[in-house]
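Chapter summary example.
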Amino acid sequence: ILFEENIPIQVLDLGRDAAWPSTHYGGRVRRAHAAHTTEPCPTCRREAHVTFVARAREARLRSSESVRCTHCGLAQEADGGPLSDAARAAFYAAEGKWSAHVLDLGPRRAEALRVLRTLRSESPSELLELLRSGTPIATGALVEVELVADPLRGVGAQIELVLHDRGGP
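The structure predicted for these 169 residues follows.
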């Protein structure tokens, strides 16, 4: 479990955990996702272990990457924002590719539309057409889709997350 600002974060390791655990704090669910892969060590070029951790928090995506090489002893960590291509590929392999669909904007429709406008670049009329057509409002790694779905759920919209392609072994 990771701790940031005294908020418990349960790391999801879908490569090892059968269930998707979550830790509740203040009525809200905080999730961190982890994906593992290997790539050539930047120092010795032998196989190194790479762990990506990402979470959607307060309408921002936070990610980190750690590299450990058992051959030369390299240990690196970096924090960042949006997922890199390598991180996205690792999350696709671990969790699959997801999409978010709006089933209903809920009782606070105008507020849900305002939230959606902050998440997407389309005009209000284009957003309404997008919703009518059933087109996903987001596609990508689960953590990226949650980044869009969670604020909409927070204003009462019903959002469905759909797994399209389960990657990995």
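To summarize the output: The first strand starts at residue 2 and ends at 4.
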